[in-house]
Amino acid sequence: MRLRLAGAVLLSAAAYYVYLPLPSGVSEPWKLMLLDALFRSFMRASDVAHALGVCHRVHLLNQVVSWVEVIEARSCPAVLVTDSALGGVPTRVFQPKGGKKLKRGVIYFHGGGWALGSGRMRSYDRLCRKMAEDLDAVVMSVDYRLAPEAVFPDQYHDALAASRAFLSAQVLERYGIDPGRVCVSGDSAGGNLAAAVAQEVNETNARLTISRSHTASYTKTHT
Predict the structure, then answer these.
(1) CA 108 to CA 95: how far, in whole Å?
(2) Counting beta carbons within 10 angstroms of the beta carbon of residue 158, is it exposed (0 to 12), middle (13 to 18) or buried (19 or more)?
(3) Per-residue confidence (pLDDT) for residue 217, from 0 to 100
(4) Among 6, 24, 175, 183, which is least packed, fewest CB within 10 Å?
């Protein structure tokens, strides 16, 4: 009798912990509730580990994410997938097979608050693989450094260095990318990096254009 009572109490406590009020239109609500409960459990465990001085809370979360999500680079019949480094920054490149000779180019930055995640995670691997195949584009997913080891603006500097390397004439030629059809993209914190990189690259190109224009005008005037 006591065993049944204890089981009922534990089951009720577990149901209370897992249950999360959701809109009626959400598909597979229990799957979402279980994932939310699992994530909250890892968050609390990381807080305890941090308080005990075992490790930084972010390190434990990243270890869990790496163990569950990070996968090796694997090509498929439609997309060639390779791990490399551009501008000194680890990247995963997705190159579609076949299609047009000159490809589009996509630079992608993953989210995670500049502290979590990786471009080698299963979810981002699938996303970039689909973009490469559907858009006939060479996609570079950037693994910029993360907090707490890297602090602002290290993440931005990594994103910018990888982007500039990707936009270099040698890399564009290597992957057969049309230089006039390259974009930057990202989700969450990666979207922030994408906006900052786009602005900086655009301003740099504008300064170079103005400088070349002034040089050409000066040369023409003095010859």
Answers:
(1) 13
(2) buried
(3) 41
(4) 24
The helix (run of H) or strand (run of E) holding residue 89 is: strand 89-96
Segment 52-108, tens digit of pLDDT: 887 787 888 778 877 888 999 999 999 999 999 999 999 999 999 987 789 999 999
Domains delineated in the chain: 31-69 (no CATH), 73-212 (3.40.50.1820)
CA 148 – CA 5 distance, rounded (Å): 45
Residue type, 77: P
Active site residue 41: no
120 three-state secondary structure: coil
The pLDDT value recorded for residue 216 is 43
pTM here? 0.80
DSSP character at residue 78:
S
Q: Which entry of 188, 211, 213, 217 is annotated as an active-site residue? A: 188
Whether residue 138 contacts residue 177, with contact meaning beta carbons closer than 8 Å, is answered with yes
At 221 the pLDDT is 45
